[in-house]
Amino acid sequence: MLSFLERYFEFKHLGTNWRTEILAGITTFLTMAYIVLVNPAILAAAGVPLPAVTAATCLSAAFGSILMGVVARYPIALAPGMGLNAYFTYTVCLKMHIPWQTALGAVFLSGIIFLALTAAGIRQMILRSIPHELYAAVASGIGLFIAFIGFRNAGLVVSDPATFVGLGNIRNPTTALALFGLALMVALEIKKVRGSILIGVVTTTAIAWALGLVHWTPTGGGIQALGSTFLKLDIRGALNKGLLEIIFVFFFVDLFDNLGTLVAVTKRAGLIAPDHSIPRLNRILFADATATVFGSMTGTSTVTSYVESTAGVAAGGRSGVTAIVTGLLFLIAVGAAPFVGVVPAAATAPALILVGSLMLATITEIRWHEPLVALPAFLTLILIPLTYSIANGLGFGIIAWAVLHIATGNWRKQDWLLYILAVLFALRFVYLGAS
């Protein structure tokens, strides 16, 4: 049985083994386990019952990650997306006064559109139309993005009313511990110790508990709580209210967040083919779309691929087993949700910073000496972390790429679909803002 699974997941071809894949799956889970606490807190503000949405968060993450691992065989984990959950709550439900059941109906419809476009091959066409330099910029931009999240979670970077951001208090015990964790992980990485990130997370967590730096309060959850949200989505209401704008935003942002994450993870893992194509792309997109549909049925907002998957890749994960292990841990978390908070931000922040730095390797693939390429790549690279959105950064990069190629008479060299994407992004920014 094990030999069959090793052949199915191509262990020999990928140069991996069970120990590495399991450690990588655990690493990915630890870096994204915060979603079990954060997503329910955000959606609860929209009126979704907290215990139910906690269970839905765990179940949808488990379903999506396991599906990705089994069907697509990639080390990409999924969970309800940050950003879209805030849009769901604060814009759709609280600002527009749309019931959460109707908002879930809109999420469901966006997932169905995803499935239809995947079946028709349109999502694959979109991915193939994006220039290679923008791929590299997206991967590096996401590296800056998750490193920035790590710095913020560590307390090293804080908000400042005068300069927007500033340096935090390094004497703060949490910040100091995070810096220790980063130094430990980097040292282990230099020594090429297997599981360096996981060792760093576990060690830092143990020290945080010993120093009394973990302030953990058990939360509700459990599969029995799911009854108040399971299949409570109002699809007819979403259609009757004419919520096309909302459905479009859910669809549009998830599409490009997903594509950006997909490019970043596969490039970091060395899984992109020599012609810059991604093997089994249709299976990856199918898993992502199906997870969104499943998530809306259980009671949570859009499910998408998580950039924290790069932490597992950095730990050596190369096959779908990594995603399956992460999914199984989320499944366990359905019953153990109250205990997920035992891993503090000081332990996971260093992992995000380290992985972010490793992802910047793709920046060398950009032809910086050619302004026609360099400016769109730079906009993509810098706006992903500054706007806190992969889709926004990629959108401005695509618009700049199209405008510059038209202005310089090089427009015939580009895929026609790229210009359509540029127009769609421009319309989105003008009429829908950055929602």
UniProtKB/TrEMBL annotation:
<dbReference type="GO" id="GO:0005345">
    <property type="term" value="F:purine nucleobase transmembrane transporter activity"/>
</dbReference>
<dbReference type="Pfam" id="PF00860">
    <property type="entry name" value="Xan_ur_permease"/>
</dbReference>
<keyword id="KW-1133">Transmembrane helix</keyword>
<feature type="transmembrane region" description="Helical">
    <location>
        <begin position="285"/>
        <end position="307"/>
    </location>
</feature>
<feature type="transmembrane region" description="Helical">
    <location>
        <begin position="319"/>
        <end position="340"/>
    </location>
</feature>
<feature type="transmembrane region" description="Helical">
    <location>
        <begin position="21"/>
        <end position="46"/>
    </location>
</feature>
<keyword id="KW-0472">Membrane</keyword>
<feature type="transmembrane region" description="Helical">
    <location>
        <begin position="378"/>
        <end position="404"/>
    </location>
</feature>
<dbReference type="InterPro" id="IPR045018">
    <property type="entry name" value="Azg-like"/>
</dbReference>
<dbReference type="InterPro" id="IPR026033">
    <property type="entry name" value="Azg-like_bact_archaea"/>
</dbReference>
<protein>
    <submittedName>
        <fullName>NCS2 family permease</fullName>
    </submittedName>
</protein>
<feature type="transmembrane region" description="Helical">
    <location>
        <begin position="347"/>
        <end position="366"/>
    </location>
</feature>
<dbReference type="InterPro" id="IPR006043">
    <property type="entry name" value="NCS2"/>
</dbReference>
<dbReference type="GO" id="GO:0005886">
    <property type="term" value="C:plasma membrane"/>
</dbReference>
<keyword id="KW-0812">Transmembrane</keyword>
<feature type="transmembrane region" description="Helical">
    <location>
        <begin position="134"/>
        <end position="154"/>
    </location>
</feature>
<feature type="transmembrane region" description="Helical">
    <location>
        <begin position="416"/>
        <end position="434"/>
    </location>
</feature>
<feature type="transmembrane region" description="Helical">
    <location>
        <begin position="52"/>
        <end position="71"/>
    </location>
</feature>
<feature type="transmembrane region" description="Helical">
    <location>
        <begin position="197"/>
        <end position="216"/>
    </location>
</feature>
<keyword id="KW-0813">Transport</keyword>
<feature type="transmembrane region" description="Helical">
    <location>
        <begin position="174"/>
        <end position="190"/>
    </location>
</feature>
<comment type="similarity">
    <text>Belongs to the nucleobase:cation symporter-2 (NCS2) (TC 2.A.40) family. Azg-like subfamily.</text>
</comment>
<feature type="transmembrane region" description="Helical">
    <location>
        <begin position="246"/>
        <end position="265"/>
    </location>
</feature>
<feature type="transmembrane region" description="Helical">
    <location>
        <begin position="104"/>
        <end position="122"/>
    </location>
</feature>
<keyword id="KW-1003">Cell membrane</keyword>
